Amino acid sequence: MSDQRLRILIGAPVDAGQRRPGCLMGPAALRVAGIAAAIRDLGHAVEDRGDLAMTPQPGTCPNPAVHSLPEVLGWTAAIRAATRDAMRAGFPILLGGDHALSLGSVAGVVEAAGDRPLFVLWLDAHSDIHTPLTTQSGNLHGTPVAYLAGLEGFDPFPPFPAPLPPDRICLYGIRSVDPAEHAVLQRVGIEVTDMRALDEQGIVAPLRAFLARVAAAGGLLHVSLDVDFLDPSIAPAVGTTVPGGTTFREAHLVMELLHDSGLVTSLDLVELNPFLDDRGMTARLMVDLVGSLMGRKVFDRPTRSFA
User: Fold this and answer.
1) Which parts of the chain sit beneath pLDDT 50?
2) In terms of Cα–Cα distance, which of 274, 300, 277, 281 is closest to 95?
3) Structurally, how many domains does the chain consist of?
4) DSSP per-residue codes, 151-206
């Protein structure tokens, strides 16, 4: 049975969660790379709701390293409301913007989910499980996993609507975790499928095990795809490059398996910084990956020239 959900594009030009400017151009780059057409060509209806705007909200944090807190609070509120509304109408696709946007997107999905359990697949080089109190960089794009897991230290953010139990969160492709984050992950018990695990077990087995849990629970699945999940040799347009990421084929295989599962109900595309790209190659790759998630098969791919 074909998936008839409306695909709803929401631009979230968040640039406040880190200090390297450029992510605010991410939504435009994804549109120029043809994300709407790529989804429509696979038989899905698409609605582009344009880019969100935010109003900074007052708030302070005792950690002096934290910066841009009023802006991140404003983005969190705007994205939360927009994602909640889109989730009720179809399949929201957040076009980022740095990963701080997930502070709002996952909260909005949870609000729309009602009694159905939500699971989150975090495709990223980083675990993003600092809190505003523990971050040394002050970059709030490194805090969303802690927020959705219900960890303390997020005043003045609104309480996360329904914190996710550890077994509903899978950090996949991780390869950069600082000691403080490692200690938190061990204490909380969130599943970490790092690149060593993928090297040893392969791409497929760990992902299928997680998807089986989602299916058994009758759950919804939110996927948060960070550009740095990919190896920087194929995706240079990110300010947080970490060598040793997934290859072109590995990333597409992940997306194809997610499509085959029929479980994905919402998606973040984050950390695309077009200022750092090479002739749009990263934006085009992200659009290609969305195509795989939406049903494109490996034998459907056109031959391309980047000359």
Assistant:
1) 1, 307
2) 274
3) 1
4) -S--TTSPPPSSPPPGGGEEEEEE-B--HHHHHHHHHHT-EEEEHHHHHHH-SHHH
307 within some domain: no
Domain of 45, CATH number, reads: 3.40.800.10
C-alpha span between 215 and 97 (Å, rounded): 30
Domain ranges, residue 84: 7-299
Tell whether 304 is covered by a domain.
no
Q: Which residues are catalytic, by number?
A: 99, 124, 126, 128, 141, 226, 228, 271
10-28 pLDDT, tens digit each: 999 999 999 999 999 999 9
5 touches 90 (CB < 8 A):
yes
* 305 domain residue, yes or no: no
153 domain residue, yes or no: yes
User: What is the value of pTM for the model shown?
Assistant: 0.96
* 8 Å CB contact between 260 and 215: no
**Residue 223: partners with Cβ closer than 8 Å, 6 or more residues away:** 120, 121, 123, 258, 264, 266, 267, 268, 293
